[in-house]
Amino acid sequence: MGHTTIRFPNDQSMDNLVIRGGRPLQGTLAVSGSKNTALPLMSAALLTDGPVKLTNIPDLKDIHTFRRVIEVTGTRVDADPGSHSMVLDAGSLVRAEAPYELVKRMRASFYMLGALLGRMGEARVSLPGGCAWGPRPVDLHIEGMKALGATIDLDQGYVVAKAPGGRLRGGRMTLEPSSVGATINILLGASLASGSSVIENAAIEPDVVHFCTMLQAMGARIDGIGTRTLEIEGVDRLSPVDVANCPDRIEMGTFMIAAAIAGEPGSPVQITGGDADHLGDAFLEAFQRTGSTYEIDGDIMTVRAPEELRPVSIRTDIYPGFPTDLQAQWTVLMAKCAGNSKVHETVYPDRFKHIPELQRMGVNAIIVGDEVMIEGGKTIQGTSVMSTDLRASVSLVLAGMVAEGETHVLRVYHLDRGYERIEEKLAAAGIDIERVQYDEWADPG
What we know:
Layout: E1 13-20, E2 27-30, H1 35-44, E3 51-55, H2 61-71, E4 76-80, E5 85-89, E6 97-98, H3 100-103, H4 111-120, E7 122-126, H5 139-147, E8 151-155, E9 158-162, E10 172-174, H6 180-190, E11 196-200, H7 206-218, E12 221-223, E13 229-233, E14 242-244, H8 249-262, E15 268-272, H9 281-289, E16 293-297, E17 300-304, E18 314-315, H10 327-335, E19 340-344, H11 354-360, E20 364-368, E21 371-375, E22 384-386, H12 390-401, E23 406-410, H13 413-416, H14 422-428, E24 432-439
Parallel strand pairs: 2-15, 3-14, 6-7, 10-11, 18-19, 22-23
Antiparallel strand pairs: 1-23, 1-24, 3-5, 4-5, 7-9, 8-9, 11-13, 12-13, 15-17, 16-17, 19-21, 20-21
Helix pairs in contact: 1-2, 1-7, 4-6, 5-6, 6-7, 8-10, 10-12, 11-12
């Protein structure tokens, strides 16, 4: 199946996925590199003046967007999507700015604040836009830069940050709540500071650990990696490195759920290239309680669906708790279970935009505050549904796989932000799915 050129959402012609449900998932699904780790790794390349080679970089819209953000600074980026590799050379970095036109497309562009402040002692970065659900404020990022010694002004939607004397001095910051993005941004600024820094209540997600490992390889002095307290001793310069990105744990979890709902009971579905440890115990234990099983042999996981799925209520939490990025997919899994369950969202309480669309497919789920109550075991029916954000999109794809009839998942540009050619992977594993273009504003008559 040919790959369709990705379009940004202001185009009139868009892609949708057409799924004819009821086909069993079988064979192998390969996990791509982690988007949520690749973006920080790309940011870190700005901290040195030589070529940094990154491998296992997924071919995703967010990666292309961030590449363009980085290139605005004068940094040279040579990407080879076919081999999933990228070389960034910030020796030519001359402009400490990240413009609104690009930053609005992706919140992770805000990593430019720490990277540019650390490298150049100044930054002018647009406040981000982002997904359509829930507030994800950048206040923690800004307070972190202030703690490192930066002065911050707001100018027509831009954060204008400067390090007195041209270099951050370092400082101490307690993150409330713990935040992956803020932890990464502060690390970017602190690594080249003139003094020492401490981050309390730091994020401990695998994305952060892998990012810290890259900084260490570049010469950064960081203690406490993988713990809630990070201590950074600033250095004068960092060196170029070659780094392999880690696998995408959310894609792996999504594929496990796909195997549980669409795999033939007892038949193996293999998931390759992932790292189950990155999922955290909460997800893996909940998955097994549904009656689904998995076995691990190196980087190959074999999943088998049970004869009958059992409902399991979950509560999202920061790592190593149940990932909020798997909450929407879990709801579809619960819809396939005979019995009642609930999903309690504690990280982003407004993250339920997928529920009205699933209701249109016959899923009996209602939102009560920050919880979703699901009565499983009802027939899921194919229809046209609308993507609203990345994880909501993939939950609709999962529902379409097990629905009666045909499902059209519209606005899949959300999906393209975080899943690399997912329709090709699923089609190769037996699912009847294809990508087609449609005109959203065409007259239906």
